[in-house]
UniProtKB/TrEMBL annotation:
Keyword hit for Phosphoprotein: no
Domain ABC transporter span(s) in chain numbering: 2-234
GO MF term list: ATP binding; ATP hydrolysis activity
Organism ancestry: Bacteria, Bacillati, Bacillota, Bacilli, Bacillales
Organism this protein belongs to: Parageobacillus galactosidasius
Family from the record: Belongs to the ABC transporter superfamily.
Record's protein name: Multidrug ABC transporter ATP-binding protein
Pfam families: ABC_tran
Superkingdom classification of source: Bacteria
Swiss-Prot/TrEMBL keywords: ATP-binding, Nucleotide-binding, Transport
InterPro entries reported for this sequence: AAA+_ATPase, ABC_transporter-like_ATP-bd, ABC_transporter_ATP-binding, P-loop_NTPase
Length: 241
């Protein structure tokens, strides 16, 4: 479990970007964090993974206090930030995956098995021997996703994972998130892509002005249009937050 309780964060001189934020992420969750630009989504992720310290409140990852032991807590989380480039340009796709697999202490055989499976699901197999520097932006995004999974962490955080991806690449990401759950226990995703959010998520949190203004499950939304309508209504009713 990841437990966030009453977290506040203020940036100088006096800009409060998180207001008493509380949420939980447990096994089986595919939690979608929705909010307009500047709502506090990325700051919240940075607090959970120990890159930004909250001013008050508590965050625990599998019982580990993130504020006191950020490095230990971070071992349980794999994260891909928006437009992240976590690969080495002078290595091939396969070499990058094997390197990060070995770095995360998998045996060579297990690292190879994981790399081959992820390349197959994400349609990276034809590019296995290509240098990363020759890949398109979409292929680099999928490789960043695959590299994060080589960590074998129980929690996966994705910040705008479909940004700039073509329809086929989005399909591969969506398929892996909904079907390949052998690689993680729970996922937290920030996105502005409502159809993608509806297809992937089973829990939803709306954040506006650093405050959670609504949370619930997919049962509330039969279609992407329902999700969008509910989200916009919740955000517009809290514009003064």
């Amino acid at each position: 479990m990841i437990a966030v309780q009453d977290v506040n964060k203020i940036y100088p001189p006096n800009r409060q970007v998180l207001h008493n934020v509380s949420l939980e992420l447990v096994e089986g969750d595919r939690l979608i964090l929705l909010g307009p630009n500047g709502a506090g989504k990325t700051t919240l992720i940075r607090c959970i993974i120990g890159l930004t310290a909250p001013d008050s409140g508590s965050i625990y990852v599998n019982g580990v206090d993130v504020v006191r032991h950020p490095d230990e807590a971070r071992e349980s989380i794999a994260v891909v930030f928006e437009e992240a480039d976590n690969s080495y340009s002078y290595l091939t796709v396969l070499e990058n995956l094997l390197y990060f697999g070995l770095l995360n202490k998998w045996s060579r055989a297990e690292a190879k098995r994981r790399a081959e499976r992820m390349m197959a699901v994400l349609n990276l197999t034809p590019y296995a021997e290509r240098l990363t520097q020759t890949l398109s932006r979409g292929m680099k995004q999928k490789l960043a996703f695959a590299i994060a999974l080589m960590k074998g962490a129980p929690f996966l955080f994705l910040d705008e994972p479909t940004l700039g991806l073509d329809v086929e690449s989005q399909h591969h990401i969506r398929t892996m998130l909904t079907e390949e759950n052998q690689w993680w226990k729970a996922v937290l995703i920030t996105t502005h892509d409502i159809p993608f959010a509806h297809a992937v998520g089973n829990k939803f949190v709306f954040i506006q002005g650093g405050k959670i203004v609504w949370s619930g499950t997919k049962e509330h939304f039969s279609t992407p249009a329902d999700l969008e309508t509910h989200f916009l209504a919740a955000i517009r009713s809290n514009l003064s937050v």
